[in-house]
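User: What would this chain look like folded?
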Amino acid sequence: MTRALVFPGQGSQAVGMGKELADAFPVAREVFQEVDDALSQKLSALMFEGPENELTLTENAQPALMAVSLAVTRVLEKEGGFTLTDKCDLVAGHSLGEYSALAAAGTFAISDAARLLKIRGQAMQAAVPVGVGAMAALLGLDYVDAVAVAEEAAQGEVCTAANDNASGQVVVSGHKAAVERAIEIAKEKGAKRAVLLPVSAPFHCALMQPAADRMAEALGAVTMNAPGKPVVANVTAEKTDDPETIRKLLVEQVCGTVRWRESVLYMKEQGITDLVEIGAGKVLTGMVRRIDRDLSGTAVNGPADIEAFLGAL
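Assistant: Here's the prediction, encoded as structure tokens.
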């Protein structure tokens, strides 16, 4: 079996995330403390206890999700002798999860990843005034049809495919009125459902350019090593292990489409049979079977998952 480790993005956060790990494993507590120290913020308390409305703020959710993913990674390494370079062939992450994947693979220090994701969250929120942008899920249309819907809906405004998550599951992003038009057009074209998403900003579209500029500056100041295993980048759906290419692609990712469906299919082409989701929730594991039923997906996020996963190696 050839294995890829995949790391979840925004939407997988929940109050209580990481608490079982922290209670069970000293190395997990060390990760959460490292993130708290890097941000000069008790993010771990917010993760464990809430309130939910604060945890959901993108500037908190992004580093919090990375922290849980890296805590799981460190526990696997410390408790199970799981070395990423020996036990997997590729890494990938959904949007912010790409930073988690790179931190797990040794490109970033955990502290740098935490600071970068805090900046990324703040910059993405600040890029567009509240109420100007929106995102919507178009369910039951394939990617080509969803792109056509977005183009028809734009009418001089921004409306683009932001996430190609799985077959028949595409998210569009842009100006609120254009996204609302896209919902109506999608329904006319046979979408099973088309609904606005409860997000605070229109991520992964051209309106995020101020955030991309801010990330170019922030990423330019950080030391980046070659990852221990290649990362499959969101914006190309292809692997790379060159730090300067990774830096450039992380900037492009802010406004670019998250090509997750294509990334998973690319991993299959590279011989991957098993995708292991490292961190909070099971969103990516659910997507795997919708993308390709030949692939196996496993979610590893709590002590019981870790024990089962290590036992099966």
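The first strand starts at residue 3 and ends at 7. If you want, I can go into more detail on any region.
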